[in-house]
Amino acid sequence: MTTETFTFTVNKTDGTARTGEIRMPRGVIRTPAFMPVGTAATVKAMYPDQVKALGADVVLGNTYHLMLRPGAERVARLGGLHHFMNWPYPILTDSGGFQVMSLSALRKIDETGVTFQSHIDGSTHVLTPERSIEIQGLLGSDIQMQLDECVKLPCSDEVAEKAMRLSLRWAERCRVAFGEQPGKAMFGIVQGGAVERLRIESARELAGLDLKGYAIGGLAVGEPQEVMLRMIETVEPHMPKEKPRYLMGVGTPDDIVEAVRRGVDMFDCVMPTRAGRHGQVFTRHGRMNLRNARFAEDTSPLDPESKCTASNTYSRAYLHHLVRSNEILGMMLLTWNNLAYYQELMAGLRKAIGEGRLESYIGEVKEGWAKGERDSKAEVGQHANNMAMASEG
């Protein structure tokens, strides 16, 4: 059941992990949730109804890309992002800060905002906290993110502190610009690099703004997994327990499982879609690269137990052929499989938390990945032996 207001309810906990629901006018987001990334108003290589059928309650759109093309004002004139991309369910938009850091050849950050050159045509743009919220409003986003400064790791404590403090000041400006929007939410973003005291200060200051939700940003930007997990553990006690927690840009299935274990509710990552377009698949048996020659005559499907047609119907040999031939269908099927696996994993985590058996579920999941890796190595060895025997013959 939807609601006219934005609400978050924690239904069950298992240790620090929790399962719950975000309710808003456009729908209910079951947490822990994985949000497929629809950067440019499309989840690449997927139909919107496919994405929904897999179990996604919300997708992510990108302020940076959409402001440059087709333009936020144009999207608004065309009826808003939901209508534009035929996705009538919740949409979260990120603020554009990360893309400015990673894609812009020339950029200048000051108290006002960020001045940068478009990676498309070199044109100059200014993104302030107020303009970021305005763009997200023009798009019609249901959950809007504050503009922040995201730094690459590793970095010095001084660089991390400067960016964290600027992000806090921008959070306040975004809060004022967002105002009161019934049924919608603005989330703050905890920054502070890999410095525990900075992360704690950022989380506490943001909690004082009484926002609808809180994200942990500036991770999955080059640091080892152990650093990321330590930062989550550092921040979690200082994040309001009655508000949703969103770990931005993360990640691998293992990253997600470990973050859920530590109390995170929401995730997004380009990994399942990007990997699918490049021949990589995620399954209950771990990761596979369909470009590998050992799949050329493998008649088994990716996962006969999956409910997804891409996973249980097409042979690995056929998928290998599509990938090696650079056929669009290969990208579509592998992306479909990957998003199906991610949503199956999230459904499994929600169920396990609800039943109080998260640790045993995680053990089963990780054993499946490990067994797949062992079997894969054995198959590679057998394939090499067969090739050697054929060449000798």
UniProtKB/TrEMBL annotation:
State the reactions this protein catalyses: 7-aminomethyl-7-carbaguanine + guanosine(34) in tRNA = 7-aminomethyl-7-carbaguanosine(34) in tRNA + guanine
Q: Name one GO molecular function term.
A: glycosyltransferase activity
Q: Where is each tRNA-guanine(15) transglycosylase-like domain found?
A: 16-368
Q: In which pathway does it act?
A: tRNA modification; tRNA-queuosine biosynthesis
Which segments carry the region annotation RNA binding? Answer: 249-255, 273-277
Q: What is its EC number?
A: 2.4.2.29
| Record bears the keyword Nucleotidyltransferase | no
Q: Where is the active site?
A: D94 (proton acceptor), D268 (nucleophile)
Q: Which InterPro entries match?
A: ArchSynthase1/Queuine_TRR (IPR050076), TGT (IPR004803), TGT-like_sf (IPR036511), tRNA_ribo_trans-like (IPR002616)
Which residues are listed for substrate binding in this entry? D94, S95, G96, G97, F98, D148, Q191, G218
The record's annotation in Pfam families points to: TGT (PF01702)
Give the highest taxon in the source lineage: Bacteria
Specify the signal sequence span.
Answer: none
Q: What class of enzyme is it?
A: transferase
What keywords sit in the KW lines?
Glycosyltransferase, Queuosine biosynthesis, Transferase, tRNA processing
**Known partners and oligomeric status:** Homodimer. Within each dimer, one monomer is responsible for RNA recognition and catalysis, while the other monomer binds to the replacement base PreQ1.
Spell out the family assignment given in the record's similarity comment: Belongs to the queuine tRNA-ribosyltransferase family.
What is its biological role? Catalyzes the base-exchange of a guanine (G) residue with the queuine precursor 7-aminomethyl-7-deazaguanine (PreQ1) at position 34 (anticodon wobble position) in tRNAs with GU(N) anticodons (tRNA-Asp, -Asn, -His and -Tyr). Catalysis occurs through a double-displacement mechanism. The nucleophile active site attacks the C1' of nucleotide 34 to detach the guanine base from the RNA, forming a covalent enzyme-RNA intermediate. The proton acceptor active site deprotonates the incoming PreQ1, allowing a nucleophilic attack on the C1' of the ribose to form the product.
What is the name listed in the Swiss-Prot or TrEMBL entry for this protein?
Queuine tRNA-ribosyltransferase
